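JOB MANIFEST
job_type = single_chain_structure
chain_count = 1
residues = 471
[input]
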Amino acid sequence: MFRIPRLLFAFTMILSLLLPIQGEAARKVPASAGEIKLSYAPLVSRAAPGVVNIYTKKVVSTRRVSPLFSDPFFKRFFGNSLGLSTPRKKVQNSLGSGVIVGSDGLIVTNYHVIEGADQITVVLSDRREFEAKLVRTDKPTDLAVLKIDPGEEKLSFLALSDSDELVVGDLVLAIGNPFGVGQTVTSGIVSALARTQIGDTDFASFIQTDAAINPGNSGGALIGMDGRLIGINTAIFSKSGGSQGIGFAIPSNMVRSVLAGTAKGGRLVRAWFGAWGQTVTADIADGLGMERPTGVVINKVYENGPADAAGLKLGDVVMLIDGFQVNDPKGLNYRIATLSIGAKAELKVLRRGREMTLMLSLAPPPEDPPRNVTSLGGDHPFSDVVFVDMSPALADELGLSDFESGVYILRLDRRTYAARAGFRPNDRIISVNGISLEGVETLKRVMSRQVERWEISIKRGDKVLKHAVDR
């Protein structure tokens, strides 16, 4: 009567002995010399010549200030004009990386790598040096396009991959010039996709990787196992300044859209959505009867814009664009920015609990109203400041929200009174002495009045600030 339990016990013991053997067999040792020699080397040898080092020089003026004149007592009577030495020229050097994307010497890098540079030098992997010409900058995406002249030679370059084909876990290599030590290759995986909470650009949808990225890698290549470019390394999350396994790259599809605009010449013009919204939070999802928070709920629609023409309404939730999920406004903007003007995009929308499909015809942002660039003269706080009437087209150029409107400071010299008083480019002038400004012409009339005091309200980002200036 005990035979069956004893058989079960014996069978269990045999299984317990066999299972570890099967697990070890799955982790078998290399069976041949070929398996031992498996390496990324062939891939690197093909891709590395397409990655370059970039060195920039910028001349800045500096002054030494006597500590005596930093005292508030002296500043009160003598201002800031005394105690300053003669301006001295100083050369600032910086480094980064770039990727050759055309055999004729077309190179992509980060905008922050070449920002303000007076001289840009490109060093190829074979150590040849070329002076580079700046072809295009696109601050909103942190991309820049350079050009070198290799003569009749056809340079090695990296073809662009489709970054939308990436999945988390894919193997990747990062190639760049960390800390200026020279071209360096690191390996890792795609850790995450569509990271939008990085940086202050409205077109963020970064690839996250654990491949080591350090200062100097900016502008370098993130490549897949087919040797094609899947991203431009651009940022790291670090408490020490070095790699901690959290790096970010601009997807190749965004690079492709900037290059397409470069090929056409002139100013880069992105496709325009013509609507704005906010992330669907858990509370909003609950209020809309959604099972989970996803998508962007629309709270602004530009009249006669593409979204309006497609039938998008206030309160609609945009969940998918061409089959790709969007979870916040930056992700939505990225999807639209990677599409071409004149193309159509399919929107999956939730409206009052019912899913529907809308077809969006993409158009350029309108220059409405005309920008009316004006430099004000006269005896007032805005003398020699350049103002502009904001439009969707200009907002796109400056990296502002499409729905910004009104009178903005376009530029001002740091020697002007307005600059010394704390005004900045992209400040919106809301009102002067209680008069709301409809446009630059209104501002001109208001500032031409003879008054003893100006009370000025401005909007900077999400804050409203007030300035009072006596004549």
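[summary]
Residues 275-361 form a domain with the Pdz3 Domain fold (CATH 2.30.42.10).
Residues 431 and 457 are 5 Å apart (CA to CA).
exit_status = 0
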